[in-house]
Write a structure and sequence with these properties.
36% of the residues lie in helices and 22% in strands. By secondary structure, the protein is of the alpha/beta class.
Length: 426
């Protein structure tokens, strides 16, 4: 079984690249010493050679260029740089058409990575069954302000489900553009208006809703107030990557050994729980994707002296403050936790900080805080171990689309842009 982490476009590829930068002391404790490559593998699709060259942790054989004339080109293909020459000019409709023309090539790629599909059997001929469980969950990371990610991501989600006979659950992690102002476009040496970016975002979300099981929103407007916002995207990607690394990988690779925390309730969560929390509907019936916002808070469990002397320097942990901070650091602007319908959270801490006492994270306190916020009172919480002297809380709050003011703002900006464009051409 493999978890698939797919980046579509510049923003999506950058986040996937950060996720696979697992153990690095320079990351200031963002990641634990768990090797995500034992659980999942990356794939990145982009139409711009420069963006692919900026990837450090996704190997060339897992990079694919999207080119109008050549289709999907693997990064190891001779002449790759000449075939993948250049972007879609922030136009997702063009990217959608090109990906649609080459959708069958995605099936070929998945077959090469995860095994061939079953062919029609001749009389009395045994044909080995396809392992359609090879990809149980897929996380599709995509930026919604540009052209490539918006245009190709629905095709990728649909292609994964087709390859696995609709058995794979797909969660889209979408990066919303800052719609307070335009952005510079390196491809055209001009500026892309906020209205155009909003139109792209709506175009992408509307089409993804039909293909995925849940949507997580990452909002660039959360850092737009910073004077140095252009240089903050790398850190923001790392923050988002760390949160996903914790909640997806943590329960699988750092589960709690009951013998280490004798007598303490340590509930489990897994990716199925995440998908359930991100969707609305009754089990066995038709479901509708919800919109999630993710947040992460961290505190040290020991003072500096505790790092040098293991039996001293333990610090008190304010579990309520950790829960509030995680919710306040949601990845979506204008999101009110009291409008959330459901929530899921993961606590990570050393075994010595799991249990009763002021030095431990109190899961009951965190769960109570989330239950007070969620309208459906549907809260799931899990516990995993941390290999560092850090305690963290990752919260994923799920909303209905109509309850999010930020999406209403994007909708209004997209409508205004569409009207202005129609008037211009009229």
């Amino acid at each position: 079984m493999t978890y698939l982490f797919i980046g579509a476009g510049q923003a999506g590829g950058a986040i996937v690249d950060s996720i696979f930068e697992y153990t690095d002391d320079s990351m200031l404790g963002l990641f634990e010493s768990t090797d995500i490559s034992t659980l999942g593998r990356p794939l990145v699709f982009n139409s711009t050679m420069r963006d692919l060259q900026n990837l450090s942790n996704v190997p060339a054989e897992d990079q694919y260029g999207v080119a109008q004339q050549h289709g999907l080109v693997q990064g190891t293909e001779p002449g790759f740089e000449e075939m993948v020459t250049g972007g879609f000019g922030r136009n997702p409709v063009d990217a959608d058409e090109v990906m649609g023309d080459h959708a069958d090539e995605l099936q070929t790629i998945l077959e090469s990575k995860f095994g061939g599909r079953t062919a029609a059997a001749a009389d009395d001929e045994e044909v080995p069954a396809t392992d359609t469980d090879a990809i149980q969950f897929a996380f599709l990371f995509v930026g919604l302000g540009g052209g490539t990610g918006c245009g190709i991501s629905p095709h990728i989600a649909r292609g994964i489900k087709e390859f696995t006979d609709d058995r794979t659950k797909v969660v889209a992690v979408t990066v919303l553009p800052n719609t307070r102002g335009g952005v510079e476009d390196d491809e055209t040496d001009g500026e892309v208006s906020a209205g155009r970016q909003a139109w792209n975002a709506r175009y992408g979300l509307d089409r993804l809703e039909d293909e995925v099981d849940g949507i997580v929103l990452v909002d660039n407007q959360r850092i737009s107030y910073l004077d140095s916002a252009g240089g903050e995207f790398g850190e923001y990607n790392e923050y988002v990557a760390a949160a996903f690394h914790d909640i997806v990988v943590g329960p699988m690779l750092s589960n709690v050994d009951a013998s280490e925390v004798d007598g303490v309730d340590t509930p489990d969560i897994d990716v199925r729980d995440i998908v359930t929390s991100l969707s609305f509907g009754v089990a066995g019936g038709e479901s509708k994707p919800g919109y999630g916002a993710i947040g992460r808070s961290v505190t040290m469990t020991r003072s500096l002296s505790g790092y040098l002397l293991p039996f001293v320097g333990r610090r008190d942990i304010d579990s309520a403050a950790l829960a509030r901070l995680s919710a306040s650091k949601q990845s979506l602007a204008k999101a009110d936790p009291n409008d959330a319908q459901k929530a899921i959270a993961l606590v990570r801490a050393p075994s010595a900080n799991i249990g009763p006492g002021s030095h431990s994270v109190e899961t009951g306190t965190i769960k109570e805080y989330l239950e007070r916020s969620c309208r459906l009172n549907e809260v799931n919480i899990g516990v995993a171990l941390s290999g560092r002297n850090l305690a963290s809380v990752v919260t994923l709050l799920t909303y209905r689309r109509e309850d999010l003011d930020r999406l209403d703002e994007i909708e209004a900006a997209a409508d205004a842009y569409e009207q202005e464009t129609e008037e211009l051409f009229a």
